[in-house]
């Protein structure tokens, strides 16, 4: 993905996409996903890591509730990554991330991720370009480790919202009593850095795309959720998973209790 | 360290080394180490990872007791890596290792390590050469991650014993009532694979020496412990650590209670 320009990529659903039909299609995909996740868990060979990145109010929480919330929670884990704790700061930046890598059979969703260490930290100049470069290399190595050594399939989604949609959603949080709990004064300060964030995201896409990013137009939640669910469904389907058969009885097996 | 031949490297103390003088020297080094570890903890900038590898009965436990046991346990952690649990097997081989990477200010000792995954597993052909190669690359990346992203200094020691010394020590465990708890029938079977293990170790030295290995002649415990203590001392000394000064009082600081 060389030299992506986010400003040239639409944040809205394609014009030909019909909202009601897309919602119906999503429902069908969610049914499929429920089965596929059960199969993933039963087969116990692969695992899935879903990385959700995006600006504040880009709709990451909504994806978790609406796409992953319909599956059996026994096989789905969600881990948010907020500002690191003191203990986390005393380790390399991938230490806290690696602990939450998915076990075989599991779907792990990252609400933000190791990419924050080359986004917010660069926007605020807490690290220089040289360190960012080293982190890119470390991230690529880490993702390769999960792929090659635990059969982990990684899906990375960038939830692409316009500055206008972001601003409207942040303001909604100051008005809607059901959303006020999400209000954070700092989000408005960060939103002013929208363009710098976009630049840093573009640099991430350039340097960490061995496991490819999917850029998800996210101004319309219904389209965003459809696209992500579809990608997850297609990935799981491509694994050609099978339910394990009963093991052959051993010669000395007790056949009656 | 290209093409090391372990059979050509002595397992005994050099002839000129005097046992009593070496033991006296070790005592002095241990005093220094106690101070250096306190400084490492206080400065809170670096961390030290000590990897102990070697055949069964090569004396890893003794090093931990005699070299690291004299330091303040607040700043020293020991982690043994035995056969992986079911949960560990459901993750990449570095998952359980990374969790025990040292925090800033700490000394972490690994009693066996991620290297078992390219030793015992190769000796028994549980993985093929292609997977071993991938693991070498992953290990090199992992060690680089700790160095570059958490200021971790890594010391890797191979405790080099002769097949004869190993056999004598294993047999001692069948006779000495204070050592019988270490007896494991399987150790005798593994000891028969001595030469294969040596070959796999040589391959490790060839492929994972970006962080260099120290080969420690280990037939004589007094020499082995001296050499390891000296290497740890020299490494900590080279860090030029300093005690942090009192922070400057803030303008609005309360100077009286």
TrEMBL record, chains A, B:
It comes from Chitinophaga barathri. Belongs to the polyphosphate kinase 2 (PPK2) family. Class I subfamily. GO terms for biological process: polyphosphate metabolic process. InterPro entries: P-loop_NTPase, Polyphosphate_phosphotransfera, PPK2-rel_1, PPK2-related. Pfam families: PPK2. Residues 17-241 form the Polyphosphate kinase-2-related domain. One of its GO terms (molecular function) is polyphosphate kinase activity. Signal peptide: none annotated. The keyword Transport does not apply. The keyword Transferase applies. NCBIfam families: PPK2_rel_1 (TIGR03709). This is Polyphosphate kinase. Keywords: Kinase, Transferase.
